[in-house]
Design brief:
359 residues, alpha/beta, three-stranded antiparallel sheet, 12 helices
Length: 359
């Protein structure tokens, strides 16, 4: 029988927090030089989580028993890459999460991904020039969530195609205007699943607007916006998975990079941004038949203003009608439209050839 050690996944980890590094502070952002590149780190103060705890407690007590609630916080890059000589510049996010978990409603299932990400911090799991994690980091996080939710999960090398945008410089340059970041661009690497799925997009009062790809065409400089095109929308992803599981992801922008990795695990995925939605979450869960409710936010979103927004959308706006008015069968609609377009193009080409032969 194989031992746990023999079957354990190889790790690519380095103790960045145990080593000193050259760094500069610009506009509250620590820009460090590690492994031959510059990396921008957002710093975490560890805010009072009481508003967050109040909101999540209300949700846990009021969602239907047919729905399971999960919490998966997303640590900032400083949790893994803060150098030893700047260790007192940022709070320990793992320790902060552990304190939150102690007070969290026991009905909520916690998916703690800090140790998982730490095992892979030698890989490109965070963007160096942006405040977000990289899609690879989101992949490792969703894999842990899939285990907790007991849903199927497809590994990168089994069901995804890899793509690269070279020369990416992200938000941390815009925030800091650091020449070190500008002159040290990175590759933005993302992954697209090979199974069938399609996204319906709604405005913020949940009125259907259009159907399109989940990963959108954007410029290199806007690479992180490729996931659903941004935040101020509601998205529903319909997949070819037939397991009856409906996921509601309530997130900040970190959650955007998670969505492509849910498409092999859930039949339907709804995505709502905590900062823009103004309906009622419990109403949404009830009316859409949600089976799995995942709250996935970065460390900054534990601060009072965003946590209070979560409380508002948990408790208010019960009267807002939340009817999914998208046309049925988005995958089929798109496939039929593509087939009709291809047939029309073929007919046009055949007519052109016939005209040439007649002449």
């Amino acid at each position: 029988t194989e031992t746990e050690t023999e079957t354990e996944e190889p790790t690519n980890s380095k103790d960045y927090r145990g080593e000193a590094a050259e760094a500069t502070m610009t506009e509250g952002i620590l820009i460090v030089y590690q492994d031959g590149h510059w990396r921008a780190l957002g710093l975490f103060g560890g805010p009072d989580p009481q508003d967050f705890l109040d909101a999540t407690d209300y949700l846990a007590e009021n969602i239907p028993s047919t729905c399971t609630m999960y919490l998966m916080p997303c640590p900032l890059a400083s949790q893994f890459y803060l150098p030893a000589n700047y260790s007192d510049y940022s709070a320990d996010q793992k320790a902060y999460y552990q304190e939150v978990y102690k007070e969290l409603n026991k009905k909520i299932k916690v998916v703690d991904i800090v140790d998982t990400l730490d095992k892979h911090n030698g890989e490109d799991i965070y963007l160096r020039t942006d405040h977000h994690w990289a899609p690879l980091g989101a992949y490792y996080a969703v894999r842990e969530f899939a285990k907790a939710a007991d849903v199927p999960f497809v590994e990168l090398d089994e069901g995804y195609d890899r793509y690269v945008n070279e020369g990416y410089v992200g938000t941390m340059y815009a925030f800091s205007e650091s020449a070190n970041l500008l002159n040290d661009p990175e590759d933005f690497v993302w992954y697209e699943s090979k199974n069938k799925f399609m996204a319906d997009y709604y405005d913020l009062d949940f009125t259907y607007v259009f159907t399109d790809d989940l990963i959108r065409d954007v410029s290199v400089s806007a690479s992180y916006l490729m996931f659903m095109g941004g935040d101020d929308i509601i998205t529903k992803v319909t997949t070819d998975v037939k397991n009856g599981r409906k996921l509601l992801l309530v997130k900040d922008s970190y959650g955007n990079a998670e969505v492509p990795f849910f498409v092999n695990s859930f039949e339907t995925i709804y995505v709502i941004d905590i900062r823009y939605f103004y309906g009622n979450l419990i109403n949404f869960i009830n009316t859409q038949g949600i089976t799995d409710f995942l709250l996935s936010i970065d460390s900054y979103s534990f601060e009072s203003a965003i946590s209070y927004q979560l409380y508002e959308i948990a408790t208010e706006n019960w009267g807002l009608e939340l009817v999914d008015d998208a046309p049925p069968d988005p995958i089929g609609r798109v496939e039929r439209a593509e087939a009709e377009a291809a047939a029309a193009a073929a007919a046009e080409e055949a007519a052109a050839r016939a005209a040439e032969e007649a002449a």
